[in-house]
Amino acid sequence: MKRIKIIGIFIIFVLAFISHFIYEWMPNSIFSILFPVNESIWEHMKLMATPVLIFSLFEYILYRKKNISFNNLLLSYAISIVLGIIIYLMIYLPIDYIFGHSAIVAIILLFIVFIIMEIISYYIMNYREIKYSNIIGIGIIILLYIIFGYLTYNPLEIKLFYDTEKKIYGIPK
After folding, report:
1. Does pLDDT of 86 surpass 80?
2. Which of 5, 43, 99, 155 could form a cystine bridge with 169, CB 3.0-4.6 A?
3. Domain around 85
């Protein structure tokens, strides 16, 4: 499992890079919820969710195929995504406020947070089975995407939601 988690960090990072451009390549209402629609800090938090969940499908299949035991898969990813978003924002926002936007810093921090997320997921998956963990995990993930969808179409007019490149909030017209 450790080896899969380590490899997963790199796969998730590549998926995040690809995910960054998917809405731009194929704009539609479903992709607007799953992938960033602009260059705001908030929209990039979708890169902590969708690529991780895509990888989790492959991870699940691989664990089943190799008979690797695990617990709480959906809950582990739901918790790691939420904590990943919080950790990223807690570190990046002060840096952005003090020094301004830096793509290099944002990318390095994203990679570091993916490492932290996979560690969190690993420990939750190796914890004893939690009753209703899949239902709780699905509920958290659905709630997260409801929030993503709502804030994509109704962004708050604060810096977190502002696309400094296109000078807009929300979806480009």
Report:
1. yes
2. 155
3. 2-169
